[in-house]
């Protein structure tokens, strides 16, 4: 199962569970595989840099940001999800 | 299945397939769910900003970066994977 398959599957499940699925969303998942479990875990620190990158492309409103952090054994996962406003808030236009 | 489960499962599969699994890795997955399929797809543009964020925390060597982009229907996925050098190249130290 490719990562795109995983996300398409998740989206399909969410679509079944929610009428509000049509809203535009950005989801950022950062996974840190550490070879040494004592290595520093910089994902919580990286969070604000990631939000700054998202903010460069779309208007981010604090109440529409969901942040989740999990750590187990030698793997840490940071998940940032931003639901975008109904109106088009894209800042960057492609050619 | 939580996202952490998905990644732990992937890591287990990779561990079975590779002897080099002990190397430290950072994986960034950006998923853009578009409500309007004609909306601009800024993920390819966002790629260089993400690499700049990673470079703030660890030393990134070009040959150790793998970038993959997929787009289907109303979902686009950008995957950036960085394998870190054997020696500790972490730039940011946590307290």
TrEMBL record, chains A, B:
It comes from the Bacteria. Pfam families: MinE. Signal peptide: none annotated. SUPFAM superfamilies: Cell division protein MinE topological specificity domain. Keywords: Cell cycle, Cell division. GO terms for biological process: cell division. Prevents the cell division inhibition by proteins MinC and MinD at internal division sites while permitting inhibition at polar sites. This ensures cell division at the proper site by restricting the formation of a division septum at the midpoint of the long axis of the cell. Belongs to the MinE family. This is Cell division topological specificity factor.
